[in-house]
Amino acid sequence: MADRNATTTWSGDLSSGSGTVTLDSSNSGRFPVSWSSRTAEPEGRTSPEELVAAAHSSCYSMQLSGLLTEAGTPPQTIDTSAEVTFGQSGGGYAITGIALTVRATVPGADRTTFDEAAQKAKEICPVSAALAGTTITLDATLV
């Protein structure tokens, strides 16, 4: 396996400062970040929580695809959204939950096979594992 890298350059104090996240490994771009993008409207900036949502939704989709394929029912499409909740917790700020919403078209899959694969993907997706201790909910629908 390979390592993946990103770099953030931050200027200023927490509340009025800002930074840029660069996706070094893929050379996929630079994204502005700020404290206000975490706690208020993003205003064209991303946040660590949005990047976690992107990582989780893509990881989960790949994991579910692999499990469904192993079961003999490769998916046609999987649409996964991840909503990461960030707020005050225990005297500071934390990710307090993640809601995964999945809609999948899987020719030949029955509801039981799909539900089992969807739940297992939530449990073994590497990003889910990295977020152990965070409440992760799943709403998965076979369409």
* H/E series: EEEHHEEHHE
Chain-averaged pLDDT: 94
Annotated CATH topology of the largest domain: GMP Synthetase, Chain A, domain 3
How many H/I helices? 4
Total discrete domains:
2
Q: Quickly give the structural class.
A: alpha+beta
CATH homologous group name of the largest domain: K homology (KH) domain
Reported CATH architecture of the largest domain: 2-Layer Sandwich
Q: Report strand %.
A: 35-45%
What level of helicity do the residues show?
Answer: 25-40%
GO molecular function, one term: peroxidase activity
Organism: Halopolyspora algeriensis
Pfam family, one: OsmC
Region (Disordered): 1-50
Task: Give the structure's gist in a few sentences.
The protein is α+β, with helices and mostly antiparallel strands. 32% of the residues lie in helices and 36% in strands. The protein contains four helices and six strands.
Give a verbal description of the structure.
This protein starts with 5 loop residues before the first strand and ends with a strand. It has helices spanning 36-39, 48-70, 111-124, 126-130; strands spanning 6-11, 18-23, 29-34, 77-89, 92-105, 136-142. Helix 2 (48-70) packs across helix 3. It has four helices and six strands. It has two domains: 6-39, no CATH class; 48-142, 2-Layer Sandwich (GMP Synthetase, Chain A, domain 3), CATH 3.30.300. It is elongated and about 55 Å long. Strand 2 and strand 3 (29-34) form a beta hairpin. 32% of the residues lie in helices and 36% in strands.
